[in-house]
Amino acid sequence: MSVAHAPAPAGEEPSARPAGLGAGGGSGTGTNHRPPPGSSLLGRQTEVARVLGLVDDGRTGQRTLLLLGDPGTGKSRLLAAAAEHARDGGVLVLASQGVEAESRHSFASLHQLLLPVLAEAAALPARLRTALDTAFGIALDDGPPDSMLLRTAVLTLLGGVSGRQRLLLALDDVQHMDRDSLDVLGFVMRRLAAQDVTALMTARGHTAPSGLPAGVPTVLLGPLTEQAAAALVDAQPHAPTGRRRIELLRQAGGNPLAIIELCRAAGTGGAGVLPGGGLPHTERIQELYAARLRALPETTQRLLRYAAASQGEDLATVMTAAGVRSDLSAWAPAEETGLVAVMDGQVHFRHPLVRAGAYHAAPAHVRQQAHRDLAAALTADPARRAWHLAAACVGQDESVATALEDTAELAERRGGFYAAGQALQRAAECSPAPADRARRYAKALRAAQNVGDPLWVSELYDRITALTEDRDLLGMAACGAGMGLSLFGHQRQAFSVLMRALEPQPPGNAMTVVALTSILAAIGYQSGLPEVRRPVTAVLEGARAGHEETPYAELATRDSSDAVRAASLAGADPARAPELLRRIRPEPTAREPAADIAEMTRLLGLGGVSWYADESDLCVEAHRQGYAMLSAFGAMGSAAPSLAAVGAALIDTGRWAEADEHLDRSAALAAVHKWAHLQSDVEALRATLRALRGEPAGGPADSAWTAVGLEENRATHARLLRAAGTAAAAAGDFDGAYRHFRSLFAEDGTPLHYFLSPRSVADLAAAAQRTGREKEAAPVVEAVRAAVGPQPTTRMTLLLHHAAALTGAPKDAEHHFRLATVNPVGDQWPPARAQARLHYAQWLRRRRRPLDARPLLVTALESFTRLGAAGLADEARVELRASGVTTGSAPAQADRLAELTAQQREIVRLAARGLRNREIAERLRLSPRTVSSHLYNVYPKLGVSSRNQLRGLFEDL
Fold this sequence. Notes:
The chain is mainly α.
């Protein structure tokens, strides 16, 4: 079921109220087979809960609610869900819908509302019954009814009915109800507290219509989130794919009605596009606003057509192109009917479908002329001019193609990957020569890859392979196609595409080889398959060393290409990561690097090597800076392979609030672009975080286990197993926890995933210790020790000591516990460090050494409390009481500043005084980036989330 409505008569908001809601009443009974009311309203769970809570007696403590929003946001559907829920609960529903044509007839809406119960008016006192009959024209009288008698009559009637059965007044489109009805209903609503009556209303717009009681509670239905909008698109029977899907989401702006109608148009072969948009057109869309558009003066219709054809051109350009000069009064009819708003030198369409209707209302030759006129008016803006020339172009034209390619290069330099991809694809379509067409399609594919749209990439890949055999162009295309297949979860197919581009003859350009191996390494990590990782090192070693000219702006500098090479090598063999990181790690400097695509690529490469080197703080910081640049560019496709890793790093380093935000953003991106394995990764990481917090939400959802083939997506499989094990342990099911953690390793201890599985070795050991399976787990710990090599990272060293303390020889346990808890570097992983201290303290207390255990428990409890790990904090608190601490439920607050280094304390002190990062950097002779990094890292340790809270940590400021 869809969120929005079926089409309504022109000029009205479409409505899809179930039969019987309009004027009928009565109660209904639900069936066991029907889904709960409102469950089909995608992205409106909060609003559904609010209105259903209003219907349920006594749940919300209020009796009235007004739903506001633009046309098509789902107000009427939400009202219908509330009415259905009310009927299922035995509530009598009285409903009325405001109709613009009846708004001039007194008491029309009130009559519609009360019609099902008018027969009960016979029991009213004569004066009240007469007032009611007079208002509805049932009885003849010399004049209008006495207003007070009429109000009292309606209140008495509803009160009598509600004495026998609870009432819900469902009032739709209140803005179109006649004023006399609203006056009476306002009187009634102000007195609902004394009656068993609830009133739920809807109105178009963002403010309550006049006539309603002052202060009536409201809920504004805004646009759907990106994730919900993508889910709604995918739920349609004619959902578009590729670039058309992304463009439809952009143009619809989260409006459910626009999404549904545009999907329907795309599926029924609707022709015609909006400039730069590709929105389909059908008679159905046009007729939604046809009456209002046809009623406008010809000059106003012409202005709307030119505004619809524009790509955000300013008001002056639109008016010049339309030949209307500067007379703003020509816009007035469209503004008065609510079709557009003219402000700040721009024309804003009130609804996405208004623009579609205004554009397609004109014949093709008229639209073509509009684009030519706009192009003529844009002589000072070659980029926009090129788009309008392309929109007016029929067939192929090299001059138009060249202009669009120039536009794309400008957009790409500014980081506008989506705009660049659109321009390049249209340039290819306008190219007469096949070679130029293939080259431009390849450049469009690279932009589409940066956007992160696998389906768009797939479409372009098919066109390129049909046009050319050029090894460099095919290599460029294979990069995008391979990553797209990987994001869909098809790792082996992606591997095959990449190897065909590399063998038997690799591309001639060394940077194309570097780009291909970077994708190959990402696929090797996600798949976890040795045969996919194996070629990476050999291919890179066979490629020419050094840096050369490249069509890839991402690899345009030596630093960026070196970082990408290092990340690929580290992914193929994580044991090399620490040394590779030392090579590419920049020296501290006060110089700010250029914020271009190459710098963004360097940061992502640095973050990737840091991830493999277990330098979690640097991993987070580098990716955070890289993501900020990508976000400014408006395309997060390059971030796709690293999003899950960064989410895990945020959890591991105790930045749980930031992890929540990061996972929300990742989930939205995965839904919009259909990144299949990332959707499961996000669910696994969310489940892990819930479990660490002690929330009783269980493990990952069932759908996460089946979204992709886990055998070729071992990274996702490992995350799901870790999440399930952590959730089981949080619930006290240590047998289940052991089974899940043990599944991260083969029978002989070989890791399921070469990198992720070893990092759960301490979790496995803890579950083994709680279930008496220490001897069973000990060989796995030793297998992990052998797998990570003779020089493991500091993090792996700490985890192995922790695991050995729990599963190894009892005589060596304290030695390993000490080594797992004393290294200060381990403080960058607060959850793991606190759990190691808790386990060490438990070991000490069971050996009747409570005095030695207390400091460890105090520190662990403080860490768990600061993190928000309620379940683990409770466990530490119980152990603390068992060790003899009875002075309260928690230890005294420690000096949080004492955990910081001297430099960090000084940075925090200066920030608390109000100095900006650049001012602090100048005073301490650091770079602003270093200051930002220090502040970000110390926030979790200090228990604050912003610099505004720092002042409270100092008594001398």
